[in-house]
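Box S1 | Example of a co-folding query
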Amino acid sequence: MSQFDFDIGIIGGGPAGAATAAYMARAGLSCVVFERELFPRPHVGESFVPSSTRVFKDIGFLEKMDQAGFPRKYGAAWTTSGKGPVYTDSFEGLEADCHVGIRFEEREQPGVDRNYTFHVDRGKFDLMLLQYAHELGATVYEGVRVQSVDFSQPGQPHMHFTIGNKHISTSVRLVVDASGRRTLLGNQLKLRIQDSIFDQYAIHTWFDGFDRSLLTNDPSQVGYNFVHFLPLTNSWVWQIPITETITSIGVVTQKKHFAKSKQEREEFFWSCVESRPELAAGLRCSEQLRSLTDEGDYSYAMKQICGDDFVLVGDAGRFVDPIFSTGVSIALNSARFASRDIIQAAAAGNFRKENFHTFEMTLRRGTKNWYEFISVYYRLNALFTAFVQDERYRLDIIKLLQGDVYDEDEPKVLKMMKDIVTQVEQNENHIWHRYLGELTANAFKPIF
Ligand SMILES: Cc1cc2nc3c(=O)[nH]c(=O)nc-3n(C[C@H](O)[C@H](O)[C@H](O)COP(=O)(O)OP(=O)(O)OC[C@H]3O[C@@H](n4cnc5c(N)ncnc54)[C@H](O)[C@@H]3O)c2cc1C
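Box S1 (continued) | Returned holo structure for flavin-adenine dinucleotide
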């Protein structure tokens, strides 16, 4: 009889944990998932990018996604209430329409045979994916919170949890932490570093009957996710279709704006929304379905995302600001990259840190690119808007927005944008200087 209860023990049954479990089960490894909640449960992070499709295809889940009736997302759009500058080589500062949109089909994406991705009700999506992992052979326990992992016996970690008043422990060969922003191992092993640059704060809820065409003149964009900029530094509203009639709306701002306002959550949410009167009018005519939920302090990195006998995937390993709907795609793709290394490590019978090097390099490269793209966006918003509209750069920007961030150390378009931001920062007389956001230039230096 084996000295281990399971090959792989996974903490958390969200997208990162469930996808890892699906990969493990398909590879014939025994695995157990412990999920503290009872699914379905609500969760933020409802709009995907197309690089998620590769994972759905890999694990055989794409057909289920297509049949589930989730709204299809063909593109994304950004709106402002006014006009802004456009990029020209001579920086003449022309006025541009600040309503921009992209369609994913504009760039052919290797390994992705759909011109759409999905918006989802996370309660339903997460349940489906976890059930699918179970169908493939993963053992799943819901309502079980892992309390700690004992690594004192090299090569045989023990996961500790409580059921009722019984303390139980399970032995595995490798622990995968997919506990999301609770970052169980990140906290236990003191790996977590808070991001001092991004201090964003979000308040969100669902509305029924909101007219999604109110802020666009283009009917083909009604099913997109929208980012509506607010006339408040680094602040925006997301608009994400959840069903035919339900729309998720979230206000994202700097935490200090909320603190300074001294308002209650509800009052603050509405005062932000009122700064885009057409949006506020549309929301006032619809029905708020849930009470407001808030999320704060969510940007951080980890000193290590793998070690002897453990790997961190999804939010448990890194969280970058959600402006480009990145989180679930990172969660799924981190499961994809980690699984390749785990399967090889299992075959070699060795789960030491050096076996997860490829996973670590690939994931760090991708999250660094996302982080820098997001930093450019917040630092000089007009540059993003201008580049999207410029045919010289549009496809390279769409590549990033599709979630294809893992194959280049420094995408050319990103380098160019960073260089322009630096020029603008260094020249107070630059025509764009006054458009600089409040983030510092350090924002380009990823914390890890
Ligand atoms: C404001 C905001 C907006 C966002 N918008 C988007 C978006 O539009 N698109 C997008 O793709 N992403 C978005 N995200 C990010 C997205 O929510 C996450 O990246 C995604 O959910 C990560 O998946 P995960 O599986 O790593 O973690 P989670 O989905 O959080 O899953 C982790 C699971 O682990 C369980 N767990 C935790 N601790 C334990 C424990 N000790 N024992 C057992 N189980 C445990 C939890 O209950 C949970 O179910 C947003 C995030 C924020 C904060």
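Residues 90-96 have pLDDT under 50 and may be disordered. The longest strand covers residues 166-177.
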